Amino acid sequence: MSHSDQSVYYSSYLQLDKILDAQHTESSKKGIEAHDEMLFIITHQAFELWFKQIMFELDSVISLLQKKSIAEHEISMCVKGIHRMNKILHMTSSQFEVLETMTALDFMDFRDLLHPASGFQSLQFRILEIRLGLPESKRLNKHFMIALNESDKAQVLSALQKPTLFDSVQQWLENTPFIETDKYKFWHEYKLAVMQTFEKDRHDIVQHDILSAEEKEQRIQSIYQAESSFNSLFDNSSYQELIQKGERFLSHKATMAALFINLYRSFPLLQKPFELIHEISTFDENMSLWRYRHSVMTAKMIGSRIGTGGSSGSHYLAMTAMKQRIFNDITSLSGMLLSRRTLPDLPADIIKQLQFTFEQ
Ligand code: HEM
Fold it and tell me: Which of 112, 120, 141, 297 for a ligand 1 pocket mutation test, highest count of atoms within 8 Å of Cβ?
């Protein structure tokens, strides 16, 4: 059976003529022997293709979360999209192992030919950071635009105008019903329960018959400190000060909603929202792991030398893993949880709603 011009053919559908003709080593252009440059190029290209898929999913999640009214099945679609992004990022981290079959000495065969090109110039990676919602105050490399050509700069500027995942999630969380009604304010009830727990902890320390008076005093003081930081999270005006100081990024209302969803996740209507915030926080973690894995590989390849893009190299990359977390405020909610046993009961009317319909 022959193929007509119209029928879909494997290699033309996948445009393999373009993809498989896109590996041109600098070393062969210059007549230099550098066997591993092919692996270097293909590894980067594979990463860039996966970044493209991640951004495709991210774009659709953001569009769904931007809707005024979000149906439950749309939350499921967001969960699915971010879950897929998580699988991809996790899998690409292990691709560094393949690149590590190239040794530092092999890399030196062609590294100087690449100057000044660098991963700094990965447009997709920069747009990914921007669309996730990396705030400028957290960005370590504030001058990344200098390294880009005019066309890439224009694309970065256009990405900066688009909604971010952070803003969309914040807006969606702020619209969570149930956490405040005429008769009920979730965080007031929760604060009371938390304060009772601290009171009990202090009482237990005083009753302790092994601890010295000094140790008791130290422990009691640290409980007071924990109580005071809890209080600043519950109280809106203290919370605004934390935002001003750059210690918090997510709004007070959204943080309280995320806490509520986290605590009462066993109710049917909160299960999908919980999965969504869980996937988002896992993606943030996977980005950090990706950054750290890349930094470890870089240290193996170039030691403490500076990068071709002029940064401090592996040290800079390790710092981005620690400092550029976008959804810390959601991940760190685990420090605010009470055990299920001590969780305040919800009012009957809210329980009734949580078991049936979800309307924003
Ligand atoms: C031998 C392998 C590699 C080495 C030695 C290396 C080294 C570096 C260094 C030193 C930087 C910091 C910027 C600079 O000063 O140049 C950097 C940035 C970057 N590299 Fe790599 N890299 C390697 C492989 C990869 C691969 C396979 C990817 C996958 C796409 C990648 C993506 C990036 C990205 C996105 C950045 C920007 C990170 C940021 O600014 O947060 N690199 N790389």
Answer: 120
The whole-angstrom separation of Cα 128 and Cα 150 is 19
Does any ligand 1 atom lie closer than 6 A to the CB of residue 133?
no
* Alpha carbon nearest to ligand 1 atom 23, residue: 298
- Domain membership of residue 8 (yes or no) is no
The pLDDT score that the predictor gives to residue 359 is: 53
Please tell me if the CB atom of residue 288 comes closer than 6 angstroms to any atom of ligand 1: no
Measured CA to CA, the distance from residue 221 to residue 65 in angstroms comes to 43
**Cβ 51 under 6 angstroms from ligand 1:** no
Regarding pTM above 0.85, the answer is: yes
Provide the mean pLDDT of the chain: 94
pLDDT of 357 > 70? The answer is no
**C-alpha pair distances (Å), 103 with each of 3, 43, 47, 291, 298:** 46, 15, 20, 20, 11
- Matching residue, tokens 């230099």: 32
Query: What number of residues does the chain have?
Result: 360
Position 66 in a domain: yes
- Across 68-82, 122-136, 204-218, least confident range: 204-218
Q: Evaluate if residue 360 carries a pLDDT over 60.
A: no
- Ligand 1, closest atom to CA 95? 27
Please state, for a pLDDT cut of 70, what percent of the chain lies above it: 97
Mean pLDDT of 334-349: 91
Mean pLDDT of 156-181: 96
* Residue 102 Cα: closest atom of ligand 1: 1
In terms of phi and psi (left: phi > 0; alpha: psi -120 to 50; beta: otherwise), the region of 211 is beta
What is the structure's pLDDT at 252?
A: 95
Q: d(Cα 264, Cα 284) in Å, to the nearest integer?
A: 23
Burial class (CB in 10 A: 0-12, 13-18, 19+), 72: middle
Report the nearest-CA residue for atom 39 of ligand 1: 120
CATH number at residue 309: 1.20.58.480
| Structural domain boundaries enclosing 101 | 26-354
Q: Is 82 part of a structural domain of the chain?
A: yes
Question: Would 252 be classed as within a structural domain?
Answer: yes
Question: Structural domain tally of the chain?
Answer: 1
Average pLDDT over residues 82-107: 97
